[in-house]
Design a protein that fits this description.
Helix content: under 10%
Shape: globular
Number of helices: 0
Number of strands: 11
Order of helices and strands: EEEEEEEEEEE
């Protein structure tokens, strides 16, 4: 049985940093594409960053480019989202998803592509506030 678990969320001041982790049991993330998505209260789920395990190809949403970095640690079967220079508008529940039938593309890594992802975690909350 596949289980995806996120961790690392919390409360941080504007300009601060957090690192989110996505681990999985029942599959090897390096064989899959892993995506980070977020959903703020009253808003639709949107894509943040995605990475393909085999070659490290990644794509980021325009709103986080230059601030967020997605990377993987194969030894730990973990994908991380390093979030720097956080802004109040980054406040959301952050989800990790994985699938081997998607690609790290602007479509699959956007809110329009969420239905194509099979395995989802429960989310970890991020609050950016002073």
């Amino acid at each position: 049985q596949v289980q995806v678990v996120e961790s690392g969320g919390g409360l941080v001041q504007p300009g601060g940093s957090l690192r989110l982790s996505c681990t999985a049991s029942g599959l090897v993330l390096d064989d899959y594409v892993v995506g980070w998505f977020r959903q703020a209260p009253g808003k639709k789920r949107e894509g943040v960053s995605c990475i393909r395990g085999k070659d490290g190809t990644s794509v980021d949403a325009e709103s986080v480019k230059g601030r967020f970095i997605i990377f993987k640690n194969n030894t730990r079967n973990t994908v991380y989202l390093q979030m720097n220079n956080l802004k109040p508008e980054d406040t959301a529940l952050y989800y990790c998803a994985t699938d081997n039938r998607v690609a790290p593309s602007p479509f699959y890594c956007s809110g329009y592509g969420t239905s194509h992802w099979t395995y989802w975690g429960q989310g970890t909350p991020v609050t950016v506030s002073s």
